[in-house]
Amino acid sequence: MSHAVESLSRVPTKPRSPRPRYRFKHPETGVDARVWVGDCREILPRLAEIRNQEVDLVFADPPFNWARAY
To answer: What pLDDT does 30 receive?
Structure first.
């Protein structure tokens, strides 16, 4: 591998915001609802809406499988 290609592969990339798996718009009110599927500890910190405090509801469905002994 050439030095130039090797150097490019080491450039850190900015993490992209996750995309919702499902998106719905209420037909009468126009309220936008989005569903993300994945680990909430990874997804929530990356959402601009969370950082900007623009979220009305977050629902997380167990089991969380965090390997904790309760």
So the answer is: 93
